[in-house]
Amino acid sequence: METVQADPSALGGPALFATMSTMRAMRRLKPEPVPEELVEQLIQAAVWGPSGGNMQCYEYVVVTDRQVMARLAPLWKRCVDAYLATTGKYAPEGMDEAAYGRMVAAIEYQRDHFADTPVLIVPCYRFPEPRLDEEGLAASARALGPAGTEHMMNTQTRFQALAEGSCVYPGVQNLLLAARGLGLAANITIWHLMLEQEWKKELGIPDDMATFAAVPVGWPAGNFGPVRRRPVADVVHRDRW
C-alpha cells in the first residue's frame, strides 16, 4: 500500500484528482442535519452518472426522518455484527492489524450511532424485461458460437447482476465524489443485503425493485485525508496478463 498524495499537480491532473485521492470512507458523522439543497445536489450528481445501456431505471430512497432512521438502526446493527463475525473478523491481505483495528473501531462507531445518521441514501434499480425474439436469439448464437452460447447461458445470473451494477454504481460513485466536493462524509456499504427484505419492507420498496447500496452521509466528525492504495505499477498488466 502507498499513500496517494492530494496535490493535483503531483498527480498530473485537475482538482478532481485531489478530490478522489482524499475520498476515504468516512464513517464518523456529526448528527447535525444536511441542508436539503445539498442532498438534492448529491442525487443530481448521481443522476448525471453514466448508466449501462443508457436505460436509467434507477431510483433513490433518501432517508432523513429521525424516526425512520431509528427503526433502521437495529437492522444496521444486525448486518454489521454479522459482517464483523465473518468476513470482517480478519484484516484484508496487505493491511496491517493496527490500521484494520482503526477501521473496525470506525465501523463500530457508525453501528452504535446509526440512529443519528443525518442522511441515508439507498440506490435502487428495476431491470427492464429483455426484449428477445427467435431471430435475434439465433443470430446471437451464431455470433457467439456453441461454446460462447453455452457459457452465456451458464453465466446468465452473473451477467444480469453485472449489467444492473453497471447501471447503478457509476451514479453512486458520482454521489460519493459530490459528497467529498461539498465537504460531506460518506461511505458505500452493501451489508444491508444480508437482510434486504427487511430493509425493503421498512422503507416500502417494491418487491421487484432491487437495492444496491446503503450510503450514510453527514458532516464529518474527523478529517479527510489521503487514501492508501496499491501502486499503479502493481495493478497494471500491459497488453496481456
Folded structure, characterized:
The structure is a single chain. With 241 residues, this protein is an alpha+beta fold. The chain contains 9 helices and 7 strands; from the N terminus they run βαααβααβααβαβββα. Strands 2, 3, 4, 5 and 6 form a 5-stranded antiparallel β-sheet that branches. The chain has a two-stranded antiparallel ribbon with strand order 1-7. α3 packs across α7, α4 (66-85) runs antiparallel to α5 and α4 runs antiparallel to α8 (196-203). The radius of gyration is 20 Å and the shape is globular. The two termini are 21 Å apart.
Task: List the main descriptive attributes of the protein structure presented here.
single chain, 241 residues, alpha+beta, five-stranded antiparallel beta sheet, 9 helices, globular
Question: What is the topology?
Answer:
Elements: E1 2-3, H1 8-11, H2 15-21, H3 36-48, E2 58-63, H4 66-85, H5 97-112, E3 119-125, H6 134-154, H7 156-181, E4 185-186, H8 196-203, E5 210-211, E6 215-218, E7 228-229, H9 232-235
Antiparallel strand pairs: 1-7, 2-3, 3-5, 3-6, 4-6
Helix pairs in contact: 3-7, 4-5, 4-8
Ranges where pLDDT stays below 50 over 5 or more residues in a row are: 6-10
What would you call the shape?
Answer: globular
The major beta sheet can be summarized as: 5 strands, antiparallel
Structural class, by secondary structure, is alpha+beta
Number of helices, where a helix is a run of at least 4 consecutive DSSP H or I residues: 9
Termini gap: 21 Å
Order of helices and strands: EHHHEHHEHHEHEEEH
Strand content: 5-15%
Mean pLDDT: 90
Number of strands: 7
Radius of gyration: 20 Å
Percent helix range? 40-55%
Pfam families: Nitroreductase
Keywords: Oxidoreductase
Protein name: Oxidoreductase
Family: Belongs to the nitroreductase family.
